[in-house]
Amino acid sequence: MWTTKTFLTKTKRGNILKIVREHYLRDDLLCGSAACNVCPHKDDECILDVQPESICALFDYNHYLLIDTNVVLHQIDILEDDALKNVIILQTVLEEVKHQNTAIFQRLLEIIGNKRRKFYSFVNEHHKDTYIERKPGEKPNDRNDRAIRKAAAWYLEHLSIKGLTGHFPKIVLLTDDENNRKLAQDDGIVCCSVKDYIENVNGYPGLLDKLSKNVMPENCSKDALYPAHLTPSQIHAGIRNGKLHQGTFYASRDNFLEGTATVNGFEKQILLQGHIGINRAIDGDIVAIEIFPEEEWRKPSDIVLEDKAEDPGDLLEEESILLNTAKSAASADISPTGKVVGIIRRKWRQYCGILMQSKFPGATRHLFAPAEKRIPRVRIETRQSDLLAAQRILVALDSWPRNSRYPLGHFVRALGPIGDKDAENEVILLEHDVPHARFSEAVLACLRPDDWTITEEEIKKRVDLRSICVCSVDPPGCTDIDDALHARPIPGTTNGLKKYEVGVHIADVTHFVRPNTALDKEAASRSTTVYLVGKRIDMVPDLLSSNLCSLRGGEERLAFSCVWEIDENANVLNTKFHKSVIKSRAAMTYEQAQIAIDDSSRQDEVAASLRTLNALAKTLKQKRLDNGALLLASPEIRFEVDSETHEPMEVQAKRILDTNSMVEEFMLLANVSVAEHIAGEFPQSALLRRHPAPPPANFNTFLKAAAQQGFELDVSTNKAFSKSLNEAVLPSRPFFNTLLRIMATRCMQQAVYFSSGTLAQEDYYHYGLACPIYTHFTSPIRRYADVVVHRLLASCVGADATHASILDTKYAVSLCENLNYRHRQAQYAGRASVALNTHILFKDRVEVEPAVVLAVKRNALQVLIPKYGLEGPLYLPSDKFIYNEEEHVQICNGVVLRTFDEIVVRLSLDSTNLQHRKLVFQLVKPVIPGFSYEEMEVEAVDQPEIEIVDITRTKKRQKKDDVQIVERPQVVIDISKKKQETKSKKKKGKK
């Protein structure tokens, strides 16, 4: 049957429109209960048990739970626990949750999809006996509450009449809305608050810990530590009249009482200092900011401040230290300063960390210390603190009252013992929001069978390149091979120059990953493959990444080829793109390829192709450098990892070969060629990658440090910057130029994906590569951006149909946001994994090594140890050192410490704080009496050779084709496969 609703609306021009809406109602929708003997259920449709066992002492009879929207939104962690089963989720609730919180909506769908949990989704909005019309003047929320009560009453009646006589399950409505409970009781519906229900559950002692404590922060004024937040209407009015600004809050990693916010219209980030300035904002929150008058603006602090406060009094004392250090500053260092006056949208998630047990025996209230330093400690309640104290745990935030030093939260689940490798890796993945669950059945159903082979029909659609001498060059142990190359001479000359055909062949992932399938949606969500130490989190299932798509040696594979006609001076004469079939002659490592090039006795096709490629690559690289491309100094380190325990044993420097650069150059050329082509065909929706020029303010500290060494660097353009970096050489210090380049990378901005229709063409420019247009095409196995670019290019050359999503600008913008976020998080996760393994390496180990000062802070030196690629603070006591903030130097007993100074440090691991194990740097040389570490004999140590590599150099398996603006030198992990006997000998030798 149909219901209709008619209403009138007035257009902007004053015309009256009559709108009729129809709503379809049915009488054959199933209730989902196995206790019902009337609904025509099939066996797999009887989700709810015949006699659901009660686990709550308040209800000694069989019952189903029916829950309202707020229970889902605020108690999703309770619902995810296996304790609760036989739960009815109404369509009304699903739609409200989807509208208010998509992340929780996805979590709810996962619970409903798990048949073992027995959650049944009932379509009450289309059932003729449960649908209700909204009354005149009735608020949408009140109408939805009434719909929930109507459905609860219907279930009760339906089961009592149609069910098993004398044994039919009852209905218990769970709601924390007191008014809703009263109205439900008036209708004869049994109802209960979540807190009362969970507190009386038997047999699940940890369930109560997961109960969310929803305290309204602004209702408290007694002993308030923080100012009240403005209401949404006040925030909206303030932003509209220009008195307030919206921005994203970013907490400082070095100073817990400082943060910044990005606000449109301001070149610099807005500085937020002190507990009032931050006002309970947490990293990632969208906040409303009031900006102070210019005379009250300050400079960012140069002090490292950790949260060690036990009470609000300690907090205020630490804050006075911070604010007093930022009063005077040169005008160039001053940043717009303001304070948070309201929260527009919380970006809270679940956080990993450890429990800091209360000092009082038997206490249930404890502090939780997050692994992420930018997140404050959290107050939680738990009765299992003795058990959880040795575990890595997951905690969710609930609220932050004005009178609470820290936010309130609740325990979600334990991840494993502290120090356990699997638990620590899980922490890294969760903390960096890396999707790492097993691929769903729906995703796996999209895959081809394991024994799939290329059909003759498919070969006829493509250019057959199986006779061409193609080979791949990758890091050792690489199984996700997504690119291969070939080069061969072409008869004749152009302008007297020899000609070559050069091809880059990329795995044709889009042949297997079709648009809008479950596999495609999962790949889009993950966006990138994530590489940890000895562990890979694939973007697509292993069958594709390591088999069907991987361009393995000696096997026929589908590819998307970019083929150029190039002269011997590396001028591109012609470019063509086509889908192809290839058969790689060899899958080589960089070292194997280098040996083939250098071995003059090898005259086979593979060696000849590699030599041609290598010669052309050197010319291509020099052209890029002449055009202003930047170079980055990057000491790369390789860990030896025990093949059984997977723990790092030793570290050694990694050699950089010509073949690394050879592959990079052709990947760059392919990406530029594809970018030009797709932007020409799809000027409004091409997916491109840009690298914005850094704001001049980013260079202030860097230029001052370079000037102290006698160099005036020109940063007006990337070409001028590259030239002045090349000239900044100190003959007496061969590593100085390398260190200068390391510091230069700190001034850069991140490269980002964008849709061509959202920016003017002059903004497409890639600063690091010095090219006007760029994209990602060469790694579709591990990057979803490349998958999209393949679809665009295939449409351009007629190799595939044009999909609607390709032309959807709104979709492209949201896709780019996710790509940028996932790419950034993957980088951070990789660095965190390196840090974890570094800490394992330095457990019970002390080293004395040469180091260099990268930055001078008010209370610390930021130092780098080139041998290990490690960086950290060397703290300086304020009673011994005098800080000159104009020159950024520290002075003690006539010893002056500046940026770029060479020093010697003692390196050890401090494990006293289990949550934040950290490397401790102690000064050995220069010797400062009363401060330097002098108790141990210091052996002379040679500083390792540091390679200068192109800024396009990437981490292991992040390979060859992008600018990496990194925050620390790169570290590459190598899994050792040494025999146990060899390892034992080495260990004995050490002893």
UniProtKB/TrEMBL annotation:
Residues 63-182 form the PIN domain. It comes from the Eukaryota. It holds the Pfam family RNB. GO terms for cellular component: cytoplasmic exosome (RNase complex); nuclear exosome (RNase complex); nucleolus. The keyword Protein transport does not apply. The keyword Transferase does not apply. Belongs to the RNR ribonuclease family. This is Protein DIS3 homolog. It comes from Pieris brassicae (White butterfly).
